[in-house]
Write a structure and sequence with these properties.
Number of helices: 13
Number of domains: 1
Number of strands: 10
Largest sheet: 8 strands, mixed
Helix content: 25-40%
Order of helices and strands: HHHEHHEEEHEHEHEHHEHEHEH
Radius of gyration: 37 Å
CATH architecture: Alpha-Beta Barrel
CATH topology: TIM Barrel
Oligomer: single chain
CATH class: Alpha Beta
Strand content: 5-15%
């Protein structure tokens, strides 16, 4: 127990009874002088702006500020999208039905993966008129072209062994007369996927013998020539492979593993392979405009395509799929597309589709090619029948000839 002595108690009483003190600040606060500027009042968050141009400035008739003094909003480094390239958002019963059926069979389309602007038009037709370009070998490519929005990977998933059968089943349900198949590049496969593509075409022909098949193939770089000929002789009707752009722009537009000369070689070998197999096919290629090409280079590209015996060529406008892809150099006017159509037809191409929204898989072009192939085969059948009828009948062995 703590006890206080008499002296300690007296000292404590003096401290309590003594005068009280208040501790102050170490430095004195100075009052602002009249010469110092007062801080500006804080602007209200939702207050009305009282600077800049107003509606009265535009209707007053006075001269507006020069271009250097105006405030420009948005990205002005890219050309504006012309009205003729704008398409409505795809909707409708046919569009929804095709999308649902593709998902049910685990199939992919280049229409969706490449963000094609014509998807609403192609998928929106009624039964027998709607078209979709099936993309084989999955939705992931081993290439990384600067214009393409398809996913890329060095090691995509293994091939779906049921894809050829599922593709043939879906196409037979649609009741179409013409179908387009395309595919991703699969450099990881020993044959680039040639056997898989050929198997799909064969199964389609088994389920729907009258259907015409177009295949837009990879370039099979660093693969055997037999891979190209395997696809060309599989029963398809149109062998397509795109050069995409002029030779000078190829390294900047396509994956560095894709070469202009290699693409021409693919188209040439396809014709040779089909001919060796006793089959007749058309070859087709496509060129994008608006990536920095020059007029003389387009002429040279067309000349070399004809020298490679290419039958069909299409021209379309490059449209940037995302901000991660290369920029559009320019938007080509419809009049220029019409000019290139006339030039290509004058060089001897069987058919030319040229327009801002034309793609390598183009509905109008497919309709024309379908009619050409049917007419050719009808004429060939008539000629074969006429040849057989003019041949002398063979004498049956052992038959006796009676005389008078």
């Amino acid at each position: 127990m703590l006890r206080l002595t008499t002296s300690a108690t007296a000292s404590a009483s003096k401290i309590i009874a003594g005068p009280s003190f208040r501790r102050g600040l170490a430095t004195a606060v100075s009052t602002p002088s009249e010469s110092q500027e007062k801080p500006e009042p804080r602007r209200k968050r939702f207050g009305t702006l009282d600077d800049g141009l107003t509606f009265d400035d535009f209707v007053s008739g006075e001269e507006l500020p020069s271009a250097g003094e105006r405030v420009v909003l948005g990205n002005t480094t890219q050309p504006r999208l012309p009205s003729f390239l704008k398409h409505p958002i795809p909707t409708g019963a046919s569009y929804s039905s095709i999308k649902k059926e593709l998902r049910g069979l685990n199939l992919h389309t280049v229409c969706e993966e490449a963000k094609c602007p014509n998807i609403g038009e192609c998928w929106g037709g009624g039964k027998g008129n709607a078209t979709a370009t099936i993309m084989l070998m999955g939705d992931t490519c081993t290439r990384g072209c600067r214009f393409c929005s398809v996913k890329t990977s060095r090691a995509p998933a293994p091939l779906d062994i049921h894809e050829p059968e599922n593709t043939a089943e879906a196409i037979s349900r649609w009741g179409l007369g013409y179908i387009v198949l395309t595919s991703v590049d699969r450099d990881d496969l020993f044959d680039g996927g040639a056997a898989h593509i050929a198997s799909t075409i064969s199964k389609i022909k088994q389920k729907a013998p009258k259907i015409l098949v177009e295949a837009l193939t990879p370039d099979f770089a660093n693969k055997s020539v037999e891979t190209i000929r395997t696809v060309a002789s599989s029963g398809l009707d149109v062998f397509a492979h795109n050069v995409e752009t002029v030779e000078r722009c190829t390294p900047f537009v396509r994956d560095r593993r894709a070469g202009f000369d290699q693409s021409l070689r693919v188209l040439e070998q396809a014709k040779i392979g089909a001919k060796n197999a006793g089959k007749e096919i058309l070859t087709k290629s496509s060129i994008m405009l608006g990536v920095g090409e020059r007029e003389d280079e387009i002429h040279e590209t067309l000349r070399r395509l004809r020298a490679s015996d290419v039958d069909v060529v299409t021209f379309g406008q490059y449209m940037r799929p995302t901000k991660k892809h290369m920029k559009v150099d320019r938007y080509v006017q419809p009049e220029e597309f019409a000019k290139w159509k006339e030039v290509a037809e004058g060089m001897g191409f069987l058919y030319v589709a040229s327009g801002p929204l034309v793609r390598s898989s183009y509905k109008a072009g497919e309709f024309f090619i379908e009619n050409v192939l049917k007419k050719r085969r009808a004429a060939a059948a008539e000629q074969a029948a006429a040849t057989l009828s003019t041949q002398p009948a063979e004498t049956t062995p052992g038959a006796a000839v009676s005389g008078a």
